[in-house]
Amino acid sequence: xxxxxxxxxxxxxxxxxxxxxxxxxxxxxxxxxxxxxxxxxxxxxxxxxxxxxxxxxxxxxxxxxxxxxxxxxxxxxxxxxxxxxxxxxxxxxxxxxxxxxxxxxxxxxxxxxxxxxxxxxxxxxxxxxxxxxxxxxxxxxxxxxxxxxxxxxxxxxxxxxxxxxxxxxxxxxxxxxxxxxxxxxxxxxxxxxxxxxxxxxxxxxxxxxxxxxxxxxxxxxxxxxxxxxxxxxxxxxxxxxxxxxxxxxxxxxxxxxxxxxxxxxxxxxxxxxxxxxxxxxxxxxxxxxxxxxxxxxxxxxxxxxxxxxxxxxxxxxxxxxxxxxxxxxxxxxxxxxxxxxxxxxxxxxxxxxxxxxxxxxxxxxxxxxxxxxxxxxxxxxxxxxxxxxxxxxxxxxxxxxxxxxxxxxxxxxxxxxxxxxxxxxxxxxxxxxxxxxxxxxxxxxxxxxxxxxxxxxxx
Length: 459
Ligand code: SAM
Description:
- By secondary structure, this protein is of the alpha/beta class.
- The chain has helices spanning 19-26, 63-75, 96-103, 121-127, 148-159, 170-173, 211-229, 231-235, 244-252, 276-286, 297-307, 310-318, 353-358, 381-394, 415-423, and strands at 2-7, 31-36, 49-50, 60-61, 82-93, 107-111, 133-138, 196-197, 200-201, 255-256, 264-265, 267-270, 323-330, 333-341, 364-372, 397-398, 401-402, 405-411, 427-436, 439-449.
- The protein folds into three domains: 2-171, Alpha/beta knot, CATH 3.40.1280; 196-264, tRNA(m1g37)methyltransferase, domain 2 (Trp Operon Repressor, Chain A); 266-449, Aminopeptidase, CATH 3.40.630.
- It is elongated.
């Protein structure tokens, strides 16, 4: 690859004789040439700038001087793809993707600006015609005095992608900002000897010699770091590259992965009185989806009007001794909720007596509702809501006894729901009849022992 840098401070680029880039030049992988822009000035003072048309502070670099310099540099025959890079804080952001793209070029010419920058006609002039691409590129949202640092950055970032420059090409694969299904994350933290320094030990797993565990630990760390530092990168993750463990790390930090979509931040929190309207809307949208097809629209609508109105939700939210509501919320609004009904007495079991016997008359709370927009099915949000509902009842004491059981009824025909409750630790304990409008429905009753045992065979 050939790179030409044009600058008024050629000595600034001396650093490119050092390290890997210096070696690449000596090895002939990189043909790097640095030019002094003033060599193309035509006056005694070697002037390259003048005052801005339209007035204002500072000086602007002259297009005629730049034109002569670039024409000369570009006059050398170089076959293949040629790119003129113009560093400027108003350019497109330099990213690893752009660096990878530039590494595929055959000839890069970097035009280092100073003062208020280069006359705008220069970039325009060289953009015309198919033989040269012009890219105006910014290092970031801050202003430097000149483009030389940007030239150093581009040369270093591009050169290390050229074959033979970095000794072990494997080391490029796992890096921050790498591509591929495992890519898109910041790199995990790295450690070396001594194993203990300043009272700080290297994480045990790295000394274990267990490759799979080390790989998993590193992946977890990369995910956690990216979640904490770069939400923009999390939002751009490829869902196909995220396995179950990745998803649970993300879920612990409040990010969930709807099927086929990148991760979305979802907050699970206690419901508050102002949520009642949004809860009623969400309930009206989700309840019909969980109903079996034989139920009439009229019955479904009657149930919604009676039990899922804004007024009903306002009642639930105003009475925490009896009801506990948890909601799942994204920036766009509520996407799921749970409603737990707490028992008034230790004996209260508002379903068939034989089921009550199975849970051994421990105070039992009912998970009356858990609903989620279909977009979030399979995203882990349902699990997070369930855990929040369980945590809600964990310290509730009724008649001096802690609530020991969480139970729910779900339509016998809804196998998908039963399977997911089973995964969450619920076991079937019986049946009950459930009125939806004019229809008496068959429900499976499932329960989970909150004290760690099995609900069906309690102590
Ligand atoms: N007046 C310009 C503006 O506000 O956009 C800033 C000019 S700056 C003082 C002078 C030169 O530094 C620019 O022409 C460019 O070559 C370089 N430069 C400054 N900040 C940069 C950045 N964030 N990325 C790339 N180059 C930058």
